[in-house]
Amino acid sequence: MKLKEISEVIIRKATKSDAKSLIDYLDIIGGESDFLTFGPGQFGRSVEQEEEFIQSVLTKENALFIVAEVEGKLVGNLNFSGGPRQRNAHVGEFGVSVLRECWGNGIGEKLIQYLIAWSKDSGIIRKINLRVRSDNTRGICLYKKLGFKEEGIAKRDFLIHDRFYDSIIMGLPID
Asked: I want to staple 127 with a disulfide (CB 3.0 to 4.6 A). Which of 91, 92, 122, 169 is the partner?
């Protein structure tokens, strides 16, 4: 799929009714990329647990869970969680993913732009962090394009098929 072929991408907050679709989606993407923190069959939540997770995000002022849909099909998601205490509630980390069939259409970028706008409007979030595998050049280029800066390296952060990978820690100040 190319963006010009996609009639419309809808970015919206996740709801409890998305739980089953999200579980199905996560089972697919776990096998599509080694850049995620889980592989095929490793996500490890039931539909009920996913419903509870979504509900818990909806109750927090410094958390966001959004999905991307194309023609009613879930094709991407982004989850952001701010710190649990007053001293770190202003900062959080996110993860983002898009179905492989939709890569290159700007969907991940739209999800992150939504997060940045939401953070600015929140009055709470002052910094967004992420970790990206050091060999994920497409991801790193996207994050830099959106203003994220490299802040450090986490050595041996991923272990996939008995091989270690480093992660680059990146951040974006909001104010």
From this structure: 91
**Residue 170 CA: distances (Å) to CA of 128, 134, 149:** 8, 11, 5
Instruction: Establish how many alpha carbons lie within 13 A of residue 104's alpha carbon, considering only the half-sphere containing its beta carbon.
Output: 6
4, 40, 95, 109, 163 from 52: Cα distances, Å: 36, 22, 19, 27, 34
Residue where the block lists tokens 């091989």: 163
Query: Can you list the domains of the chain with their CATH numbers?
Result: 3-125 (3.40.630.30)
CA distance 64 to 77: 10
Residue 1: per-residue pLDDT: 41
Q: Name the percent of the chain lying above pLDDT 70.
A: 97
Q: In the block, which residue shows the tokens 């409890």?
A: 16
**pLDDT for the residue 5:** 64
Contact indicator for 132, 170 with CB cutoff of 8 Å: yes
Question: Is the pTM for the entire model greater than 0.85?
Answer: yes
For residue 37, give every residue at least 6 positions away whose Cβ sits within 8 Å of its Cβ, in sequence order, or none.
Answer: 95, 158
- The pLDDT tens digits of the residues spanning 69-125 come to 999 999 999 999 999 999 999 999 999 999 999 998 999 999 999 999 999 999 999
